[in-house]
Design a protein that fits this description.
Blueprint (H helix, E strand, L loop, with lengths): L3 E4 L2 E4 L4 E7 L9 E6 L6 E6 L6 E3 L7 E6 L5 E6 L8 E8 L9 E4 L3 E6 L1
Parallel strand pairs: 2-11
Antiparallel strand pairs: 1-3, 3-8, 4-5, 4-9, 5-6, 7-8, 9-10, 9-11
């Protein structure tokens, strides 16, 4: 089982930016798609963004388009970064890193989850 470790969460004012990072502790997941989900209090977990195994094809949920950028570095323990700009209070959530069972950009079979990192956006 791959262990995914997130970092970069915190408190930021509306309009600000944060960068989340996720590393694959074993460095063995380079063949699989990875991405980010989030879960706000009292809500279901929702998809945010994902990238194919090679980092070439990013895919974004509508909530992320134009504000968030996902990137991947397989040479560095398959690190996946999520740069979040123009943050809004409604972006407040716990953000989870995910690794899929397949290589394509759409996450259809998540095999591993990180513990989550909390993002709080104040108004």
């Amino acid at each position: 089982q791959v262990q995914l470790h997130e970092s970069g969460g915190g408190l930021v004012q509306a309009g600000g930016s944060l960068r989340l990072s996720c590393t694959d502790s074993e460095g063995t997941g380079s063949a699989y798609a990875m991405g980010w989900f989030r879960q706000a209090p009292g809500k279901d977990r929702e998809f945010v963004a994902s990238t194919s195994w090679d980092g070439v094809n990013p895919y974004y949920a509508d909530i992320a388009k134009g504000r968030f950028t996902i990137s991947r570095d397989n040479a560095n323990k398959n690190t996946v970064n999520l740069k979040m700009n123009k943050l809004k209070p409604e972006d407040t959530a716990v953000y989870y890193c995910a690794m899929d069972r397949q290589s394509g950009v759409v996450l259809t079979q998540v095999r591993d989850w990180g513990q989550g990192t909390k993002v709080t956006v104040s108004s």
